[in-house]
Amino acid sequence: MPNRTKALDLDSRPTSYWAERRPYGSIRYRVVDEYPESGSHYRIPIEESKDRLSLREMIELVDRTVHYPCVDETLECEVGLLEAHWRFERSQGTDPKQAVEFARFESSVYPELEAYFLRRGREWVESCEREDDSDL
């Protein structure tokens, strides 16, 4: 592993997860927003590890990353970075399918993540459709 590796990109925003090998051997993780002036901050559940994260651990990292300040006070932001983004897009009138297509992850380090989060996105869209049907 090079000293610093972009582990994962969120397409809809200039946001990415980075892994950096520390001089004493551990790996430090962080979320980088390419627009720091936006005031975004992220709380991640795994800040450092001895070894490279497994696929399951990387999923947990995404699912439990919290974006502060919350993009909309009416939304729950403790749902993970990707789902929080989907929810925000939906609150702005975006169709759930479009929200999922717009906000997705790509990773050369964890190529399985794209398929995993696309499946999660389909499940989220189905739950939105059920919710909309129950509102009728």
Characteristics:
single chain; 136 residues; alpha+beta; two-stranded antiparallel ribbon; 4 helices; 7 strands
Helix-strand layout with pairing:
Blueprint: E1 4-10, E2 15-21, E3 27-33, E4 41-43, E5 48-49, H1 55-64, E6 66-68, H2 81-91, H3 96-102, E7 105-106, H4 112-134
Antiparallel strand pairs: 1-2, 1-7, 2-3, 3-5, 4-6
Helix pairs in contact: 3-4
Q: What's the gist of this structure?
A:
By secondary structure, this protein is of the alpha+beta class. The protein has helices spanning about 55-65, 80-90, 95-100, 110-135; strands at about 5-10, 15-20, 25-35, 40-45, 50, 65-70, 105.
Q: Could you describe the 3D structure shown?
A:
The protein is of the alpha+beta class and 136 residues long. The protein has one domain (4-134). 38% of the residues lie in helices and 23% in strands. The chain has four helices and seven strands. It has helices spanning 55-64, 81-91, 96-102, 112-134, and strands at residues 4-10, 15-21, 27-33, 41-43, 48-49, 66-68, 105-106. The strands form two sheets. A five-stranded antiparallel sheet has the order 5-3-2-1-7, covered by helices on one side. The protein has a two-stranded antiparallel ribbon with strand order 4-6. Strand 1 and strand 2 (15-21) form a beta hairpin. The longest helix has 23 residues, at 112-134. The N and C termini lie far apart (53 Å).
Number of domains: 1
Q: Name the overall outline.
A: globular
H/E topology pattern: EEEEEHEHHEH
Instruction: Give the number of DSSP strands.
Output: 7
Largest sheet: 5 strands, antiparallel
Classify the beta-strand content into a percent band: 15-25%
Distance between the termini: 53 Å
Helix content: 25-40%
Strand order, main sheet: write it out.
5-3-2-1-7
- Rounded Rg: 16 Å
Number of helices: 4
Structural class: alpha+beta
Low-confidence stretches: none
Give average pLDDT, whole number.
Answer: 81
